[in-house]
Amino acid sequence: MVSFLFLLAGALLGGAVAWLWRGSELAAARARLEERERALDGRLAASEQRLQGVVREDLAQARGELEKAVSPVGAALEKLDRELRGLEAKREGAYAALSSQVTGLLAVQGQLASQTRGLADALRRPEVRGRWGELTLLRAVELAGLTERCDFDAQASQKSLADGLLRPDLVVRLPGGKNVVVDSKAPLSAFLEAAEEGDAERREARLADYLRHVRKHVEQLSAKAYWERLQPAPEVVVAFLPGEAFFSAAVRGEPGLLEWAAERRVLLASPTTLIGLLKAVAQGWREEAVQEDARRVRDLGAELYKRLCSMGDAFAKLGKGLRGAVEAYNGAVGSLESRVLVTARKLEELHAAPAGEKLPELSTLDASPRPIGAEELLPASESRIGAR
After folding, report:
1. Are residue 211 and residue 155 in the same domain, yes or no?
2. Statement to judge: residues 136 and 166 lie in one domain
3. H helix intervals, 124-152
């Protein structure tokens, strides 16, 4: 029993000693671990500092490169901003100018509408409408290059073969003694009413009235029969519609209107077609003037040829006279030498001649007039002989 207690006490004592030794080892190990932790912390701190330095350098370098790369973009953005501000200022100025112009245009449009209504009201009066058509007609004639009292007559009274005087608006003279009568009294009241009509059906009805009035006007012109009542007789009668809109409305309303009117010897004409017709007349007059000049040149050439022939006769007579004068002179010189001067020289030999005086030496003429070679200048008798 005692031995067991000793054994138990020895075991406890050995365990205590082992526990104490193990505790010292653990303390030493803990100390070494803490030392290693402190060393590791120092190395980590140093590494962190080095990493932070590298990161700061990289960030500074990247920031510099970024600023260098972004600076042109910033300058471009600033320039774009300035240009946008300038464009905005210009846009505001242009908008203000456009607004002012639109205001002025609206005012002008109002004035134009007022004047158009006044013109439409005036054109409803027959005397005003007739005068306007006459002025438009005269303007077309002037544009074609014709001259009043030379190429045409306006509002001139024409003597009728049947029943007194007629007074067409215009009589255009054609080469060869012909002429064309132009009438400008167009019925426009229905067309003006159609232009002001807002309802489509009523507008078409007014246009139909206008077309009916135009047909009636053509029939009235055809019934006047200018080609039978005037001298020289006109080829055709032109019904002048003083506006392209009037002409197109009539033709569009009835496509066969032009042919129908032409069968009645009446031509419907707008300002454009009338100017073309009158320009053709003006060209005809120019060609007539050229032909007249050619006829005058031919007559002058024939007269010149006759005068050259007469001059040839005169020159032939003058040549004969000169030849006869030379022959008479040579005969007189020979007679003087052989009959007179021989006796006079004997007086010199006898010293009976006055002192200081000497008889002249006379010679005959060998030159003769040049004969005429041109047949045109030969006398008519010699020309006939040469022809034989």
Report:
1. yes
2. yes
3. 126-144
